[in-house]
Amino acid sequence: EFFLKKINGGDDSSRLLSLLKIPRYLTEICKVINNNKYRLKDIEEWKRSDFFEKAIYFKLQNDIKKKKKKGLPNELEISQRMLEKLALIMEIKRTNRVSKDEFISMLDDINSNINTSFLASFDIDLFTNRTLKKTDSYIEFHNTEFQEYLAAKEILRLRSSEQVLYELIVDSDLGHIYSNWYDVLRFVVEMYPALLLPIANFLVNKRDG
């Protein structure tokens, strides 16, 4: 009944529609609820980003837990961070899919200990099979909103998030926000509402300055 109300609701509920109407992700969210014995009042407090977090990472967490062989140190945390980095890079490049070679090149270009550890120790095919969708010779996220949500998470990890956001989302010549960043921006503000005013002030100052 709760999910039916979400699906048939408006505003924030309508933006959950694409997620909850997909049986696979609705099933994953139900498993999360059952496994953790969440109560209705707990679920009612979830934001849209909470639903996305659980739908994206529940299967990955279970797959790593079920491995018979001992996994790599911090395998879950590194896998999650790599997804977030990949999502942000793809948003910057304004694409929803990349080849495996492009994916490796993207990571190789970033100077990061996490990237170095991932490229040296992780089975990339296993990683993509667990977390991404393969179409012909390309890989992509199962849902474009997953990419937007994960890109927003990665932005919030960066210093001076409002300045980074401005440099990423605004066409400095025309003074408008690139259309592909609107949904990412919504996730950023939803997860960290305190950033809304600094972002707005930064946009105004840049426009007037």
Structural write-up:
With 209 residues, the protein is mainly alpha-helical. Helices cover 69% and strands 6% of the residues. It is built from 13 helices and 5 strands. It has helices spanning 2-8, 12-20, 23-36, 40-44, 48-66, 75-92, 100-109, 113-121, 124-131, 144-157, 161-169, 182-191, 196-208, and strands at 97-99, 133-135, 138-140, 170-171, 176-177. The longest helix has 19 residues, at 48-66. The radius of gyration is 18 Å and the shape is globular.
Topology:
Elements: H1 2-8, H2 12-20, H3 23-36, H4 40-44, H5 48-66, H6 75-92, E1 97-99, H7 100-109, H8 113-121, H9 124-131, E2 133-135, E3 138-140, H10 144-157, H11 161-169, E4 170-171, E5 176-177, H12 182-191, H13 196-208
Antiparallel strand pairs: 1-3, 2-3, 4-5
Helix pairs in contact: 1-2, 2-5, 3-5, 6-10, 10-12, 11-13
Structural class: mainly alpha
Number of strands: 5
Q: Name the average pLDDT.
A: 80
Tell me the number of helical segments per DSSP (H or I, 4 or more residues long).
13
Determine the strand fraction and express it as a percent band. Answer: 5-15%
Which sequence of strands runs across the widest sheet?
1-3-2
The unreliable regions are: none
Largest sheet, strands/sense/barrel: 3 strands, antiparallel
User: Span from first to last CA?
Assistant: 51 Å
| Element order: H for helix, E for strand | HHHHHHEHHHEEHHEEHH
Shape: globular
Backbone CA Rg? 18 Å
